[in-house]
């Protein structure tokens, strides 16, 4: 996780400047130490595995969902340590994270706007992760990135951190694996797929994926998929001229009779009655 000084981009008039951004994956022990103090802000979000980060005079164990933020001049030390007893393969990943080096007058004002914690528990809230990945994608775009877009994405990320990192009512306790399952379902709801397809996409066993999702959301993957498909069908009945058989097919239902049965069980009316009331 080294700052890419060769790729520092700037533009007059922007309130922030990205000096380095990316995704780091470590399969072997790793140490990074900046005892002389950082020369920019550093944000690091642990996405999987564990790492140890120096905060004050102690090493914090950072796990998935832990965000650490440092201001210019602060000492920084990162340690990723392997535990051979827990590893099933030499290819096992010890730690993965999203990182960001940045600076600028807007960031100075944002940082000073409230007492800043070095460590926040974000629980990998999907909004933060999405913005972070969008910023990385734009910053690393071949050629000249859109610096204005990077500026706005960074500001949005900082404000989102404020919302979910400092407001307990807004913070999400949902683990990343469960959010990834939910995202997969919503993306592929209109298609046919199996529990194995979902589990393989996020790198879990079927039983583990089922357990993680049920524990996080209080319903099964199949139940949630059915709810998403039914909501898609409701939207199409409200806002399209497609017939009910077409809607059932486009929303992933195997047959109209099955769609009719689950729709009536969910809403207490038939699809045709629902459509008449909605128009």
Automatic annotation (TrEMBL):
InterPro entries: Homeodomain-like_sf, HTH-like, HTH_AraC, HTH_AraC-typ_CS, Tscrpt_reg_AraC-type_HTH. Keywords: DNA-binding, Transcription, Transcription regulation. It comes from the Bacteria. One of its GO terms (molecular function) is sequence-specific DNA binding. Residues 179-277 form the HTH araC/xylS-type domain. PROSITE patterns: HTH_ARAC_FAMILY_1, HTH_ARAC_FAMILY_2. Pfam families: HTH_18 (PF12833). The keyword Transcription regulation applies. This is AraC family transcriptional regulator, arabinose operon regulatory protein. It comes from Alicyclobacillus hesperidum. The lineage of its organism: Bacteria, Bacillati, Bacillota, Bacilli, Bacillales. The gene is araC.
